[in-house]
Write a structure and sequence with these properties.
The termini are far apart. Helix 12 (304-316) runs parallel beside helix 14 (345-360). This protein folds into 5 domains: 5-110, 2-Layer Sandwich (Beta-Lactamase); 124-215, 2-Layer Sandwich (Beta-Lactamase); 235-404, P-loop containing nucleotide triphosphate hydrolases (Rossmann fold, 3-Layer(aba) Sandwich), CATH 3.40.50.300; 407-476, Helicase, Ruva Protein, domain 3; 488-547, Arc Repressor Mutant, subunit A (Orthogonal Bundle), CATH 1.10.10. The protein is elongated and about 120 Å long. Residues 317-330 have low confidence and may be disordered. The strands form 4 sheets. It has a 5-stranded antiparallel β-sheet, sandwiched between helices. Strands 7-6-10-9-8 form a 5-stranded antiparallel β-sheet, with helices on both faces. The protein is an alpha/beta fold and 550 residues long. It is built from 22 helices and 17 strands.
C-alpha cells in the first residue's frame, strides 16, 4: 500500500495524528502529528510492526474484525490521552487492505471523571433518577443495585408478579440471552426486559427494566371516554348547524323553530337518510328542555319487550331497568321514537295512554317527557290497513314536518360536501379540498339514502386518497353499488295480481310477491335478500313476519 507525494503532503498538513498500516500490521504511513503525539520519529516508525511503535494499538483488531471503532479514549505510551477512531480499509472487491487510525489530543480531559469511584457514582445517580424500574444482579444472582422506582413498584405488586422478576433474571443467567415478560389485563399492564451484562466476553450479571403501563392504559381509556363524550356533545345540533339554503328546506326549518317553542308532540316524516333524528335533536336543543336528556328509541331495532318496559315506565313509573331510566327526573327531556310505524299495535295503546295522561296533566302523573316521532314509511297507509291507531295518529300529528329528498335540494350538496370533508380533515389531520367537477358529479347522482348516502360516498372516496394528495378528484369517487333494477325475474306476473282490489292491497300483494321471489333467489339467505331489495335486515324480518314468509 503506497501513497502519492501529494496525498502524503495533505495528510501531514492535518492537525490529527494519522497512522496507516497494511494487512500485515506494518506501518505504511505515519504523519508528523502522530510522531509528535506518540513520541516516535516518522522515519523510524514506517515499516515497523504497529505493536513495536504503539504496543497497545487496536489497529490489528480492526483488521481482524473489519469493523470500525469511533471516538474512543486511548492512553499512549507517552502518557498522553487521545480520542481515536479506527477504520478498516478495503479494495473494490471488499478485500481488507489495512487500517487507519485518526487521533487527536484530549486537552480538556479530566481524569477524575473516569476514575472508578466517579463512574460508579454517575451510574448510580442515573439509575436512581430514571423513571423505569431497574434491578441489577451479579452472575451468582446476588442483588447489586435496585432503584427506588423498582422497590416502590415491587412492594405494590402481587406475589406472582414479583416471582416473575426472579424467573426472568434466572433465565438470563442460564441462557446468556435477553428475555421479556408481558402481562396485560384489566388490572395490570406491564413489560419486563432482562439483558445479560457481558464484559470482555464474560457474563457478569443481569440488568432488568420494568415498565408499568397500567396508569397509562387507564388514562387512555379515560381519554377515549372523553372523546366519546365530545362526539356526543358535537351531536347536539341546533338549527344553525343544519345546512338548508334550498327553498325546499325553508319550510321544515321554520316549522321546527315553531315546534321548539311548545311541548306538543312532533311528527317528522322523510325518507331514510334525510335527517329526521338531527331535526329532532335540534328541536330539543332549541327548546326549554335543552338541559335535560335527549333519548332515542328505535321502534325498528329495539325489541318489543324493551319497548314495552319503556312505555309502561313512562305511564306508571315502573321501576324496571330501562323504564326507570326514562321515568327518573333526569329523563324529563325529550324522547324521540324513530320509525313509529313499526311500533306494535299493543304498544301503540300504551303510547296513546301516555299522551292522554300528559294532556290531562294528572297530579299523580309526575313524568314530563316530550314526544317526537319519526317515520320513513307512509303512516297513512298503515292507518288505512288498520296497523296504526287513528286516535294516536291525530295525537302525534299536531305538528307534522316533512323533510325533502336530497335530489329536491341539490343546492345544498356543495355545502354538505364541504361539511363532510371538513369532518374528515379534522378526524385525520388532513387538509383535503374538493374539485368542482366532483361537486357537479355528486349533484347528478341519484341518492336512495339521501344525505346519509352522500356522506358514505365521500367517506369511501376520501380513504382512497394517498397522503400526498390534497384534492379529491373525480378518479377518487366511490359510488355505492345499488340494487340492480334489471332483476326482472323478481317482478310479479300479471296473473299473480288481481286488479279488482283497493290500491293499498295491490301494493301489499306486489311487495309480498317481490320479497318471496328475492328470498327464493338467494336460497333463503335473509342478509343477501335484504341487500338485493335495499332494505335493512330488521325491516326485512318485519315484512317477512307481516306477510307470513318466514
Amino acid at each position: 500500500m503506497q501513497f502519492s507525494v501529494q496525498i502524503q503532503d495533505i495528510l501531514n498538513e492535518m492537525n490529527q495524528g494519522i497512522i496507516v498500516i497494511d494487512k500485515n500490521s506494518a506501518i505504511v504511513f505515519f504523519n508528523e502529528e502522530a510522531a509528535d503525539l506518540v513520541g516516535f520519529a516518522e522515519s523510524e516508525a514506517v515499516g515497523k510492526h504497529i505493536m513495536e511503535v504503539v504496543p497497545t494499538s487496536g489497529l490489528p483488531r480492526v483488521i481482524r474484525t473489519g469493523k470500525k471503532e469511533t471516538e474512543k479514549l486511548f492512553d499512549l505510551e507517552s502518557n498522553r490521552k487521545v480520542r481515536i477512531s479506527r477504520l478498516p480499509l478495503f479494495n473494490k472487491k471488499k478485500q481488507i487492505l489495512g487500517a487507519i487510525a485518526l487521533f487527536s489530543s484530549v486537552s480538556d480531559y479530566n481524569e477524575e471523571w473516569f476514575e472508578k469511584e466517579t463512574m460508579q457514582a454517575l451510574v448510580e445517580m442515573l439509575v436512581q433518577n430514571i423513571d423505569a424500574a431497574i434491578s441489577i444482579i451479579d452472575e451468582k444472582g446476588k442483588s447489586m443495585m435496585k432503584n427506588s422506582a423498582y422497590e416502590n413498584w415491587a412492594d405494590s405488586m402481587e406475589e406472582g408478579v414479583n416471582e416473575q422478576l426472579k424467573v426472568l433474571h434466572h433465565k438470563v443467567l442460564q441462557t446468556r440471552r435477553a428475555h421479556q415478560y408481558i402481562k396485560n389485563n384489566n388490572q395490570l399492564s406491564i413489560k419486563m426486559n432482562a439483558f445479560p451484562v457481558m464484559i470482555n466476553g464474560k457474563l457478569k450479571g443481569s440488568f432488568q427494566t420494568v415498565h408499568d403501563y397500567t396508569q397509562l392504559e387507564k388514562l387512555q381509556k379515560e381519554l377515549k371516554g372523553a372523546r366519546s363524550f365530545i362526539r356526543a356533545l358535537e351531536e347536539k345540533y341546533i338549527f344553525d348547524d343544519i345546512i338548508g339554503r334550498s327553498p325546499s328546506m325553508q319550510i321544515p326549518l321554520q316549522q321546527c323553530r315553531l315546534a321548539s317553542n311548545n311541548d306538543y308532540p312532533v311528527f317528522i316524516r322523510g325518507a331514510a337518510g334525510t335527517g329526521k333524528k338531527m331535526f329532532a335533536r335540534a328541536i330539543h336543543n332549541e327548546s326549554n328542555r335543552k338541559y335535560n336528556r335527549f333519548f332515542v328509541i328505535s321502534c325498528l331495532d329495539t325489541s318489543e319487550k324493551e319497548l314495552e318496559e319503556i312505555l309502561i315506565g313512562m305511564v306508571k313509573g315502573n321501576d324496571r331497568k330501562v323504564a326507570q331510566a326514562v321515568y327518573q327526573k333526569e329523563w324529563q327531556g325529550t324522547v324521540y321514537l324513530d320509525e313509529i310505524s313499526c311500533l306494535p299495535l299493543a304498544l301503540q295503546y300504551k303510547l296513546l295512554s301516555f299522551l292522554q295522561c300528559m294532556d290531562k296533566k294528572e297530579k299523580s302523573f309526575r313524568n314530563n317527557v316530550r314526544i317526537i316521532v319519526g317515520s320513513s314509511e307512509n303512516i297513512e297507509k298503515a292507518l288505512i290497513n288498520g296497523d296504526f291507531l287513528e286516535e294516536l295518529y291525530y295525537k302525534l300529528n299536531k305538528i307534522s314536518i316533512h323533510l325533502p329528498l336530497l335530489e329536491e335540494r341539490q343546492e345544498d350538496i356543495p355545502q354538505l360536501t364541504k361539511k363532510f370533508v371538513q369532518l374528515f380533515n379534522h378526524d385525520n389531520a388532513r387538509n383535503v379540498s374538493v374539485a368542482q367537477e366532483v361537486i357537479e358529479k355528486l349533484k347528478l347522482y341519484s341518492y336512495s339514502e339521501n344525505v346519509k348516502e352522500l356522506k358514505a360516498i365521500l367517506q369511501l372516496s376520501l380513504v382512497k386518497l394517498q397522503k400526498k394528495e390534497k384534492v379529491l378528484g373525480i378518479n377518487h369517487l366511490c359510488f355505492i353499488e345499488k340494487i340492480s333494477t334489471d332483476n326482472k325475474e323478481l317482478l310479479p306476473k300479471k296473473e299473480d295480481i288481481s286488479e279488482d282490489k283497493p290500491l293499498s292491497l295491490l301494493v301489499e300483494e306486489y311487495e309480498k310477491i317481490i320479497i318471496g321471489k328475492a328470498l327464493t333467489k338467494n336460497d333463503g339467505n335473509k342478509t343477501l335478500t335484504a341487500k338485493l331489495l335495499g332494505l335493512s335486515v330488521r325491516n326485512l324480518y318485519y315484512k317477512l313476519e307481516k306477510y307470513g314468509l318466514g
